[in-house]
Amino acid sequence: MIQIMHVFGIWLAAFFTLSIFSFLYKDNPFYKFAEQVFVGLSAAYWLVYIIYSIMVPNLFAKLIDDFSGNIVLLIPATLGLMMLMRLHPKTQWLSRYPISIMIGTTAGISMLRYMKSDILEQVTATMINPFSANTVSGVLGNLLLIIGTITGVYFFYFSKKVEGIYKVPSKIGIWFLMVSFGATFGYTVMARISLLIGRLEFLLSDWLHIIK
Amino acid sequence: MKLSPVAERRIIFTVLLFAVALPLVFPIGWTTEISEYTRIAYRLIEETDENKVVIISFDYDPSTMTELQPMAEAMIEHAFKKNQRVIATALWPMGVQMAEQAFDKVCSHYPDKERGVDYTNLGYKVGGMVTIQAMGRSLSDVYPVDNQNTPYEEIPMLQNVRRLRDIAWISSLSSGVPGLKEWMMVARDSYQVPVTGGCTAISAPGFFPYVNEQRQLHGLLGGLKAASEYESLIGRLGSATTKMDAQSIAHLLILIFIAIGNIKVWHGKKGRQQ
Amino acid sequence: MKRSLPLIFAFVVGIIVLISEFIPHRPFNQIVSTLENWFMIISGFAILLGQISLIRMNANKIANRLPDWQYHLAGLVSFALMLIFGLLWGMQETPGLMGDGQGISAYLGSKPFDYLFENAYMPLSATLFSLLAFFIASAAYRAFIIRGFESNLLMITAVIVIIGRTSIGTMLTGWLPESLSFWHIPNLADFIMEFPNSAAQRAILISAGLGIVGSSLRIILGIERSYLGGDK
User: Which of B248, B255, B261 sits opposite C167 (nearest CB)?
Assistant: First the structure.
């Protein structure tokens, strides 16, 4: 029985794979069916994991094991229920309280972490001695790094109109951004092709057994 | 012969399909070179002592498993070879199953590795950066049980692991938010735990600035090619390496499409000028 | 009250988080630790809210027989099946309400939840994103046209990176002597990623970081209120 269900499973997977690929020809009922099944399965997967990974171990199990010791957990439970009040127009205003606590926490943490990681550390990483490299290409690279970072940040300064000679660093910044976008496009091609290779390998190996 | 845009598209799709499928059926066996970013990540794991506890965070879903699952298997195998003890966590719910599949595959080659002693899966938690920050204070508060409902205190390999600072290195394999950036921002920049990781090729260019002198990231595996490079470094013929032939042919094809597109536009311009 | 109290909460919570970074002692570290644990639980309810909204939206389309309602019914049925399997028998090593599902696992080879995940969810998820490979090939043919200096720069970089990240780059310039190794395509691609690309991405990170710090401060100080929704 297990073997039959294993084979059925592979054929089910192949059916869904080909249903999605059929969109490449044109939109059709198989694709629409597969798309909605994906939405349904995805939502249910998240819900089951939320229940078993967060609600049960971090809330309900603690309250059941030691209610008086964990009574303070009733506060986030209440806030969570207030969040669900968003579903009804008359009680929507109650959801603002838990949302504001989450937003306040996230804003505080984000501000600190982005200030350190994306501003201070990145500026520090740019403050290098460009001539410390051992090779000519290293020195050239370090110079490009410093010039590119400064002109790139300059480009993103939109508070004042840049005119005349002040346009030059902005132009150089755009060139560096174009190089970056070209590199990103190259990597994007690599990413997309990789995903296609994965699916074709499944069809040719697991389903059709053409690849051993 | 003038083709309609729809016909052109279908020809492009068909040619791409064959260009990717044929090297899978008839492998060529080309080799690729290893980049410095992959070597840095490799050295971090290679130079970590035995019996140290490490975290691999599975922050992706099946849509990107072709790129990230080979990285996960390679890193787990490398950690097992160095007798390091692996904790799997997930900031995406599907990551839990991805972790189990990776452990199952690697443990088939390492049957002596025991769950709870050499590896464990703590499961999924929502919250991203806030959750990682909470892990920095107390891992057992965030994960009271593992994904088999074993209480944290009863897992042998976690006896001396209270918070993130007790971890030797963290690797986040991520395809979006939350993921590698959040681990780097909190675990490395706040708690000074070395962080490395892997990401899909599409996000890799955005992570390279973090591989700097301050070692915000200890190397980076960006995409399928980097997974294949890592497999070469640990001496393993894995799933990433076998796909590189198809990747190379497909890249060549994309360049041919770009060239044909440009020739077509140039030809049209020349015709209009005449 | 309905709008001012949430703003006060956001301010107090944000300020406590900021203070605890500089004074990591009691009571600030305890308060922040509690907030972080509560955050996970409230986030769980937020995701539950999303699921309920999704069910309501689909049920509404089915009840009103809107176009393509049959597919939304299929979506709801698959949602219900996956949810019931997960709740009744759990997943992998986690037991459900009806135990560990050893009986049904003996027929399927795994729990029903895991079976659906491996044979339905995984292929659907992976295939949906793999469609993009075809569209990028089509886009490369139609839209990637050389026009001016800047698009030239983009194109040349893309070509070097596309070739350099494969075996073809190694073969094309592998014959170059050591003194010209800079022009070896994989090395050139690595140079581009390490220096000019990093410079531009760093500029984006710094600029976006400044924006995030600014908007976080606006939220904490109550200047940015869009998260509160309408006036009701």
Answer: B248
C192 part of a folded domain: yes
Q: How many residue pairs bridge chain A and chain C with CB atoms within 8 Å of each other?
A: 398
**Number of B–C residue contacts, CB under 8 Å:** 147
Domain count, chain C: 1
B36-237 CATH pick, 3.40.50.10160, 3.40.720.10, 3.40.1190.10, 3.90.950.20: 3.40.50.10160
- Which spans in chain B are helix H? 5-25, 36-46, 65-81, 95-107, 129-137, 139-142, 180-183, 204-207, 224-233, 239-273
Q: In terms of DSSP H, where are the helices of C23-148?
A: 28-63, 69-89, 102-108, 112-116, 122-143
- Whether ipTM > 0.95 holds is no
Do the domain assignments include residue C13?
A: no
Say yes or no for a CB contact (<8 Å) between A196 and B243.
no
What pTM was computed for the model? 0.91
State residue C230's pLDDT score: 65
Each residue's pLDDT tens digit, B59-92: 999 999 999 999 999 999 999 999 999 999 999 9
Instruction: List chain C residues with pLDDT less than 50.
Output: 232
Domain extents in chain A: 128-212
B251 contacts A117? CB cut-off 8 A: no
CB-nearest partner of B134 from C33, C138, C190 = C33
